[in-house]
Amino acid sequence: MSSAYGDLEASGYVSVHIRVQEPGSWTYRLKEYFRIIAGEVGGNSEDPFIANNLYHYDAAGEKQKGLNNGPDGLPLLRIDGPYASPTQVYSNYRDIILVGSGIGLTPSASILRSVLRHKWKKGYYPETIRFCWILRQNELDSFHWFIELLADLSARVQSDRESGALTELHYVELNIYVTGSKDLSSNRSNAHTPTGNAPGTLDRKTKKSAQQPGFSSANAIDPNTLRRMLLNPSVDAKDQGEVQMDGHRAPNRIQDIWVWRGRPEWNTIFANTEAHILRRREAQGTVYETIKVRVESEVGVCFCGAPAIGNALKKNCVSYSRKHEEIKFTLNAEVF
């Protein structure tokens, strides 16, 4: 389950995401079932973003995204829950490092939706998010739904900045680390696509977003553009610190989304977070009450995924928690 705070109230739905595994598995059969339904209702059954081709008509006769019932008239999905996650504490922090991998990505999706669609506009914490998604390239097709989500959220944030709905204190960094990618160095000079979209390339989901108040269609991102970058990541993760210093001209960036080849360099991510906090303090002045400094400088590291990643995060939380700077990194982890 990965719906955001406000989704049910604002849009009338909650979301569930299922990772598609090998052919013959129940998840694969479910995906093929949805593909068949998409063809039956007149959609493009070959579109990798299957959800774009599943729709129904509401009481007013308007076409709406998604299907409630299958061909037999029964509900397509029934959900048992809810079940808690340690990432629920994220709103206690002004700054967070959010890390997701594998099936642990769904809590991250919920947090990003909640904050970027709803909470920032209401003045809630966190103010800064550094998100890290570790993705094996051969699993890319299992996460089309998340590629669409990141494209949509980045475009929304860009529009909110331009409209004045967000302040300069709101900062998000959406990092995707692609592991196991093939060596396509001979094609690297042509690996990038323009950050803008060619006319007529918006998918159905992005078109719907572009019609919403406060959303500028000029900021829309075609998820297929992002997918192509993930198929051919061109910048090594070890160069992240240097590349982000010249961020606006970085070839691996679309708005707030960054695509890296290889595993994250945690030292860089923690050091960047620490530097951000120190710069903010300097800009706001040096007169702080001790308790205020501690509250505002405790960074929440929220993680769901494999134990090896959790161990690396724990080590860096200890290394970068500096008493003399009144900065503390606190790990909130769920490993499996």
Q: What labels would you give this structure?
A:
single chain; 336 residues; alpha/beta; 7-stranded mixed beta sheet; two-stranded antiparallel ribbon; 10 helices; globular
Describe the structure.
- With 336 residues, the protein is α/β, with parallel strands linked by helices.
- It has ten helices and nine strands.
- The strands form two sheets. The chain has a seven-stranded mixed sheet, sandwiched between helices. It has a two-stranded antiparallel ribbon with strand order 1-2.
- Helix 3 runs parallel beside helix 4 (144-163) and helix 8 packs parallel to helix 10.
- 33% of the residues are buried.
Order of helices and strands: HHEEEHEHEHHHEEHHEHE
- Which structural class is indicated by helix and strand composition? alpha/beta
Overall outline: globular
- Note the beta-strand portion: 15-25%
Q: What share of the residues lie within helices? A: 25-40%
From the N-terminal CA to the C-terminal CA, the straight-line distance is: 17 Å
Could you give the order of strands across the largest sheet?
6-7-5-4-3-8-9
Number of helices: 10
Which stretches are low in confidence, meaning pLDDT under 50 for 5 or more residues running?
184-208
Could you tell me the mean pLDDT? Answer: 81
Break the fold down into its secondary structure elements and pairings.
Elements: H1 7-11, H2 26-40, E1 55-57, E2 63-65, E3 95-101, H3 105-119, E4 128-136, H4 144-163, E5 171-179, H5 204-210, H6 223-231, H7 240-245, E6 253-254, E7 257-261, H8 266-284, H9 290-296, E8 298-305, H10 307-320, E9 328-335
Parallel strand pairs: 3-4, 3-8, 4-5, 5-7, 8-9
Antiparallel strand pairs: 1-2, 6-7
